[in-house]
Amino acid sequence: MGEVAPDNEYQSREDRAAGRPVRQRVDELSGKRQWKATVTDPNEPNAKRASFEVTFLADVQPVPATAEVLPGVRPIELDGVMAEPRVAGNGEFKYQSYLFRATGFRAAGAAGGSRKVPESGSKAA
């Protein structure tokens, strides 16, 4: 897993020029802030699908507790993973992709010791 960063809304050139603040996206169902991280699946044989973005839903920024095995890379296991199918591509070159969301993560191979993103209320569907 790479670094966890805020998932910000699109800001137009006019908004930036006017000095308007950048707004972080909020999940419509849970009301929690959205955070993004790039995750790599080492068991995926297709190189194009090995890395993907995961959106974490949390009130505060999730912080990985595991040590880096390479610069910017940490082994984790995702908790509460939800996959939402989407249509991606342009014109006649469309294909099925997925939007991945998670409620938290823990150290890879950790039995029972879970590192969850702090929650307040119910989970999003």
Describe what this molecule looks like in 3D.
The chain is mainly β and 125 residues long. It has one domain. 7% of the residues lie in helices and 36% in strands. It is built from two helices and seven strands; from the N terminus they run E-H-E-H-E-E-E-E-E. The strands form two sheets. The chain has a five-stranded mixed sheet with strand order 1-2-3-6-5. A two-stranded antiparallel sheet has the order 4-7. Strand 5 and strand 6 form a beta hairpin. It is globular, with a radius of gyration of 16 Å. The C terminus is likely disordered.
Keyword list:
single chain; 125 residues; five-stranded mixed β-sheet; 2 helices; 7 strands; globular
Write a short abstract of this structure.
The chain has helices at residues 13-17, 47-50, and strands spanning 5-6, 33-40, 51-58, 76-79, 82-90, 93-102, 104-107.
List the SSEs and their pairings.
Layout: E1 5-6, H1 13-17, E2 33-40, H2 47-50, E3 51-58, E4 76-79, E5 82-90, E6 93-102, E7 104-107
Parallel strand pairs: 3-6
Antiparallel strand pairs: 1-2, 2-3, 4-7, 5-6
**How far is the first residue's CA from the last residue's CA?**
23 Å
| Low-pLDDT residue intervals, each spanning 5 or more residues | 117-125
Helix percentage range: under 10%
Instruction: Tell me the fraction of residues in β-strands, as a range.
Output: 35-45%
Q: What does the overall shape look like? A: globular
Oligomer status: single chain
Order of secondary-structure elements: EHEHEEEEE
Number of separate structural domains: 1
Rg over alpha carbons: 16 Å
Major β-sheet strand ordering: 1-2-3-6-5
Q: How would you sum up the major sheet?
A: 5 strands, mixed
Q: Helix count, per DSSP?
A: 2
pLDDT averaged over residues: 82
Q: What structural class should be given to the helix and strand makeup?
A: mainly beta
Number of strands: 7
